[in-house]
Amino acid sequence: MNRRVLIGIFESEDAILDVTDAARRRGLKIVDVFAPYAVHGLDKAMGLQRSKLPWVCFLLGLTGAAFKVWFEYWTSASDWPINVGGKPWNSLPAFVPITFEVMVLFAGISTVLAFFGMSRLWPGRKTQLLDARVTNDRFALVLEEDNAAFDVDEVEQFLRDHQALRVEEREQKVAR
Amino acid sequence: MAEVCSPLRMPLIAGHKRAATVTEDVCRPMLQPPSGLWWAGFSFAFSLMLLGVAAVSYQIATGVGTWGLNTTVGWAFDITNFVFWVGIGHAGTLISAILFLFRQKWRTSVNRSAEAMTLFAVMCAGIFPVIHTGRPWLAYWLFPYPNTRGPLWINFRSPLAWDCFAISTYFLISATFWYVGLIPDLATIRDRIAPGLRQRLFAIFSLGWNGSYRVWQHYEVLYLLLAGLATPLVVSVHTIVSWDFATAVIPGWHATIFPPYFVAGAIFSGIAMVLTLMIVARKVMNLEDYITHRHVDAMCKLLLLTSSIVALAYGTEFFTAFYSGNPYEQFVFRNRALGPFAWAYWTMVSCNVLVPQLLWFRGVRRRIGIVFALSLLINVGMWFERFVIVVTSLHRDFLPSSWASYRPTVVEVTTLLGSFGLFFTCFLIFCRILPVIAMGEVKAVLRVGQAGVPSGSPVHRAEHAGGHT
C-alpha cells in the first residue's frame, strides 16, 4: 500500500518543535519527525505515548534476580551441598551480590534487545533517509495526506509559515 | 554590555558552533590520515603491549613462581594492578551514568571517551586475576556451568566468585551502554563518508538508524534506564572488589569502611585518568572548543571532592585502629606509616591528599599544565594506595617468625607496563576509528548558555515549545 506524504525540512530545533506542535493542534496526521539528536519536548509535541521499555526492564530484571536466587539455592543447598566453613546451606545474605549483578545484567541486556525489536533496528537493515542531512543538522516533519480534505497547498503554506526550508510531496510505501 | 557573563550563562561549547560544524569537527580526525604524533604514540604503546605479551607468555609457561610472592605476601602486584585498573574504569561510568542522572550537561563532551576508557581499563584489569589463577586456560571454571565433575558448582558465598560476576556484568553493561550511545553517531558518519568498506561497516553497526523520532523517544528512555542500572552497578562493583579484602580477617583489610572508601578512591583515580587523557586529546585532536576550561574545572572539583573522601577514609582507618584497642590492628597501621613500606604510604598520602589541595585554587584549576601534572601524580598515588593496602597488611602478620618482605620481579613490572601498553593502544585506535565526542549529545547542548538558555535548567525547551502556539 502506498500513501502520499508531505515533507517539510527545517533548520532548527525551535522550528521543528513549533511546527510539530502546531500540526498536531491542527489535527494533521504526523507520520514521523526526523532529527539528528533528541530534542527535548518533541515527543510531547508529536503526541507520542510513553515508552513501555521501563516495564521490560523491570520485569526482566525481576526474572533475572528470581532465577539467580533459585539457582544459587539449588546448587548450594540441593544439587551438591558442600560445607564451606560451616556456613548454612542456604546462605541467602551471601547470595545477594551475585543476585544483584545478574539482575542488572538481565535488565540491561533485555531492555536493549527489546529496544532493537520495538524500533526495528538490526544489522544490515536498509536505511531510508528522508534527507541526507537528517543525521547531521536538519529536521524533517512528515505529514500524511490521509483524506480528501487534506489541502496540499494550504498545508504547504502552513509549513512555510513555520520556517520550512523546503517542502516536498512524496509517494511512500507503508512499511509497517 | 559586551562581556558581562554569569557562570550560568557561560556556553558549554565554545566557538559558536552549529550542528553541522560539530559533525565536521568530530569527524575530521577520523577521516584524515593519522599524524606523526599519533604514530609515535601508537608505536610506543604497541611496543609496551608486546613487551607485556612476552611477559605474560613467559609467566603462563613458567608459572606464578616468576612473581615475587612468598607464603606471607601471597597477594601483591597483580591484585594491586587489578584494583587499580578497575578503579580507573569507574570514572567512565560516573560521567556517563551518574552525571547523566544529575543532569550535568557538561558530561556530553567527555562521556564517549570516558566510557571507552572504562572498557579498556576493565580489559586490563581482567588480565591479572586470570593469570593469578595459575592455569588461565581453565579460567572458565569461575562460572557455574553443568560440568562432568559432578556437576560441582562454584561457591556462591565467596567474594572472589562475586567479583567474577561483578566484573563480567560491569564489562557487558558498559560495552552495551557505550554501543547504544554510539548508534546515532555511527549513522551520522555512515551518511557522511564515501562508499566503501568503511562506510559498509558503519552501515552495519548503525543498524539502519534514520533519525526517526519514534525511535529517538524509545532511545531516550533506554538511555535513562541504562544510566539507572549502571549507577548502582558501578557502586556494587567496587564494593565487591573491596569485599575481596574486607571479608578476610586480616588486620588492615577487615574494615567496614572499605566499600565507600574503595568506591570513592576508584572514582578519584578514574577522574584523574580521564583528565590525563582528555588534556592530551583536546590538544592533539583540536577539541579545545568542546573540552573547555569549564570541563577541566568541573572535573578538578570532582577530584577535590573524592580526594577529601579518600583523606577522610585514611584518617578513619587510623582512628578505628586506635579506638579498637586491638593490638594487631594498631600494629598494622603503625607499621604502615612507619615500617619498611613507609615510603609507599607517604607517597600515597602526598599524592592523594596533599597535592590535590592545590585544586582549591581557581588559578591552579585554570592552568591546564598544572592540572595535567596533578592528574599524573594522583594516578601514581592511587596505584600506591592499593599497593599499601595489599602489601603492608600482609607482610608482617600475627607471627613475627613468618614476617617477610615483598619485592616485585621484572616479570611483574613488565606485565604492569604491558597493561598500560594495552590500554593506550586500545585508546589510540579508538581515537582513530570512532567519534571521540558524542555528536548527538553535544548538538543537543550547543545552545546551553547561549540566547539566554541557562545551563542548569533541564526542561528549558518544553515550556518554550508550549508557549508559541
Structural write-up:
The complex is a heterodimer of chains A (176) and B (469). Chain A has 176 residues and is α+β, with helices and mostly antiparallel strands. Chain A folds into two domains: 2-36 and 133-173, Alpha-Beta Plaits, CATH 3.30.70.260; 53-118, no CATH class. Chain A contains five helices and four strands, in the order βαβαααβαβ. Chain A has a four-stranded antiparallel beta sheet with strand order 2-3-1-4, with helices on one face. The N and C termini of chain A lie close together (10 Å). Helices cover 67% and strands 0% of the residues of chain B. Chain B has a single domain, classed as Formate dehydrogenase/DMSO reductase fold, CATH 1.20.1630. Chain B contains 16 helices and no strands. Chains A and B meet through α1, β2, α2, α3 and α4 of A and α1, α5, α6, α7 and α15 of B.
- The outline of chain A comes out as rod-shaped
Counting helices, strands and paired strands, the structural category of chain B is mainly alpha
Alpha-beta classification of chain A:
alpha+beta
Query: Which strand order spans the largest sheet of chain A, edge to edge or round the barrel?
Result: 2-3-1-4
Largest sheet of chain A: 4 strands, antiparallel
Mean pLDDT of chain A: 88
Tally the helices of chain B: what do you get? 16
The parts of chain B where pLDDT drops under 50 for at least 5 residues are 454-469
Proportion of strand residues of chain B? under 5%
CATH topology label of chain B: Formate dehydrogenase/DMSO reductase fold
CATH topology of the largest domain in chain A: Alpha-Beta Plaits
Strand content of chain A: 15-25%
Order of SSEs of chain A, N→C?
A: EHEHHHEHE
